Q: What sequence folds into this?
């Protein structure tokens, strides 16, 4: 990133981070699980409308950061490797869409 881009994204990062936490509050434990995708798409649409593609980029950075930290914590707590946890996630993805 260049300095202008870094400043531009940095200005909206607190808002997007707040929206990311709000999204996670809505989807963790939600039933049926299909609602997770609906909530995520709604959040992405709101970010796109309010902040444009820069907002979507920051949303992805924010959610990726949260996910990475939680995977690291889970690995430490369970004594499993990051790779083993990611393999489990990939297996779940495959089981839910074996053709894709």
A:
């Amino acid at each position: 990133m260049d300095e202008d881009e870094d400043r531009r994204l940095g200005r909206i990062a607190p808002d997007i981070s707040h929206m990311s936490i709000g999204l996670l509050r809505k989807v963790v434990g939600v039933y049926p699980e299909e609602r997770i995708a609906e909530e995520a798409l709604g959040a992405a649409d709101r970010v796109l409308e309010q902040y444009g593609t820069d907002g979507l980029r920051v949303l992805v950075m924010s959610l990726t950061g949260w996910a990475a930290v939680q995977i690291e914590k889970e690995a430490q707590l369970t004594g499993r490797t990051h790779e083993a946890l990611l393999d489990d996630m990939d297996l779940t993805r495959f089981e839910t869409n074996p053709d894709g």
